[in-house]
Amino acid sequence: MVNLILNENMKLYRRWRTWIMVAVMIAAVLIGSIVEWYYDNKDAQNGIAWQEQLKQEKQHNEKMVSDPEMDEESRQWFQEQITLANYRLEHNIRPESGTMWDGINGSAELVILITLFTVIVAGDSLAGEFTTGTIKLLLIRPASRLKILVSKYISMLMFGLLLLIILFIVSVLVNGLIYRFADMDLPLVTVDSAGEIVQRNMVANLWQTYLLNGVATIIFVTMAFMISSAFRSSAMAIGFSIFALFAGSIIVELFQAYKWSKYVLFANIDLSQYLAGRPYQEGMTLSFSITVLVVYFIVFNLVSWLVFTRRDVAS
Amino acid sequence: MTGEPIVSIRNVTKKVGRATIIDNLSFDVPQGEIFGFLGPNGAGKTTTIRMMVGLMSITKGEIKIKGKNISSEFEQAIRHVGAIVENPEMYKFLSGYHNLIHYARMIPGITKERIHEVVSLVRLENRIHDKVKKYSLGMRQRLGVAQALLHRPSLLILDEPTNGLDPAGIRELRDYLRFLTRTEGITVIVSSHLLSEMELMCDRVAVLNKGKLIDVKLIQDFIGSDHAAQNYLIEALPAEHALAAIRDIDGVKDAKPVPEGIEVVTERDRIPDILARLVRMNIQIYGVRAQRQSLEDRFLEMTGGEQIG
């Protein structure tokens, strides 16, 4: 099994394509962070300390709250901002804006790039062997088809994890260097769904964001695998999965009014909706979404396994 | 042929949808021989080979390799097999060496030394660290043979092995296969439609047509001394006189003019008498030779004269 994974990794990392993806990701982090820093710098040139700025914001928010035409949801949001500002001023904790964490948290958005690259690699990993015909020499060895499928799967997940680690290291390094590692121990202050102020470790929060997004990556990779083994075409597998990746959220928005749409994969794939306390439909819970995702995950894997191990290799 | 057959195919049928591709095939491949699968395109050679290596499922019947069922005991059965199925498709973005590492990792007990041994066996030492995409077809074919031999298989299956090889390459492969069967006792199965190649290479041939087994025979039997009557070519002048004279002789079953001389169907015993008569009639004889019926002729005969692709 270990040898099979080594093989898959060899086929992955001895290709230019893979390293170009890594390079593109590093470049995206660099550009994103530098652009962010550039605009932050411009704002900061007004020379106001964060305490002053926060007080100004607070005053503005208080005015908004007292506006009688404000709807309930917005009023609540402004109220939260005031509570946060009070807490920050009281405990002398500055906001992330204008620190290295702003750029680092912003780079976490690039997890979508990781999903994209991993899906491309996964779609090609299985279907590509059929397209080039190498599948024949691969399958006539004393290794069951299931083991080969699992080794490819693990190798893909490892690739996703590698990209995640690169994203973390590069974004921390770049933003750290830009801001000379100031405010490195800044905690994250948020209001939880119960309206209480919580103070958390920034790095832990970052990894929580990464891993919640990683769930989506795993589901999309699993889907790419299923399409790969069913259609045996890299183009089809990659095309379908990328389409799903971008069109998924549009699809669920279209059907949001219908009750059944909460069972659609894309309505559950973004688990961070529960962190913000704003689920896709009323009454959806984290455990509901996890259950739905697990069911999809099992079905996808079952289909790839059945199709891959049963079908004749005739190409 | 000693002991147990290395491959036994029993009542194997393959259906795809409603079409029957292989129809109730049964035969054994004896150990230590070079065994040929012969048949026109679509006869089922490649399908049979794909079922033997587990790439295709078997609808009915069973295939055993060294007594292990390829369907139910795949990993134990395939361990003894090295194969090239159609073209030797390798990972083009890897070097030849890394391709071999790749396959070596999939079977326990293959050392670095064995890899080097196989590389020098197929004479790729100088190019083994180049990417496969830079290889010529012949070199890919040799790398294909190398990967098939890595784990010292008892059975080597080569589907159309002479495809893309130049005549020198074909001869080299043929000699090498002979060498393998003699020294290491490997059994080789080759499929081909190059009948002349099969004739030179194989000990035994299974003829397939339309998914059915026509016959399994030793190559000598095929080419045939089993027929009492044989064809002889007699070159003699003047040709018309000679033809007329030969037709009158007892025991001559047929005689007809061909561009090289006169083709005579008769028994071997009758040859001295025919020659003596021609000499007495002052007919000049320039040559007599026995014409062996080639595998191709027999093959066409057996499959009803269908064109061989």
List keywords for this structure.
heterodimer; A: 315 residues; two-stranded antiparallel sheet; 13 helices; 2 strands; 74% helix; B: alpha/beta; Alpha-Beta Plaits; six-stranded mixed sheet; 11 helices; 14 strands
- The overall pLDDT of chain B, averaged over residues, is 84
Shape of chain A: globular
Question: Could you tell me the number of beta strands of chain B?
Answer: 14
- What's the CATH architecture name of the largest domain in chain B? 3-Layer(aba) Sandwich
What fold name goes in the CATH topology slot of the largest domain in chain B?
A: Rossmann fold
Overall tally of domains of chain A: 1
The succession of helices and strands of chain B, N to C, reads EEEHEEHEHHHEHEHEEHEHEEHEH
Low-confidence runs of chain B = none
SSE ordering of chain A:
HHHHHHHHEEHHHHH
The number of distinct helices of chain B, counting runs of at least 4 residues, comes to 11
Return the structural class of chain A. mainly alpha
Describe the structure.
The complex is a heterodimer of chains A (315) and B (309). The longest helix of chain A has 34 residues, at 145-178. Chain A has a two-stranded antiparallel sheet. Chain A has 13 helices and 2 strands; from the N terminus they run H-H-H-H-H-H-H-H-E-E-H-H-H-H-H. Helices cover 74% and strands 3% of the residues of chain A. In chain A, strand 1 and strand 2 (197-200) form a beta hairpin. With 315 residues, chain A is mostly helical. By secondary structure, chain B is an alpha/beta fold. Chain B is 34% helix and 30% strand. Chain B has 11 helices and 14 strands. Chain B has a 6-stranded mixed β-sheet with strand order 6-7-8-3-9-10, with helices on both faces. The A-B interface holds A 3-4, 6-7, 10-11, 14-16, 132-134, 136-137, 139-144, 310, 312-314 and B 16, 50, 53-57, 74-76, 78-79, 81, 83-94, 98, 101-103, 105-107, 147.
Helix and strand arrangement:
The complex is a heterodimer of chains A (315) and B (309).
Chain A: H1 2-13, H2 16-44, H3 50-66, H4 72-91, H5 100-107, H6 111-132, H7 134-139, H8 145-178, E1 188-191, E2 197-200, H9 202-231, H10 234-254, H11 265-268, H12 272-275, H13 286-310
Antiparallel strand pairs in A: 1-2
Helix pairs in contact in A: 1-8, 2-5, 2-8, 3-4, 5-8, 6-8, 6-9, 6-10, 8-9, 9-10, 9-13
Chain B: E1 7-16, E2 19-29, E3 34-38, H1 45-52, E4 60-65, E5 68-69, H2 74-78, E6 81-84, H3 96-105, H4 112-121, H5 137-149, E7 155-159, H6 167-184, E8 187-192, H7 195-201, E9 204-209, E10 212-218, H8 219-223, E11 229-237, H9 239-248, E12 252-258, E13 261-267, H10 271-280, E14 284-291, H11 295-302
Parallel strand pairs in B: 3-8, 3-9, 6-7, 7-8
Antiparallel strand pairs in B: 1-2, 1-4, 4-5, 9-10, 11-13, 11-14, 12-13
Helix pairs in contact in B: 4-5
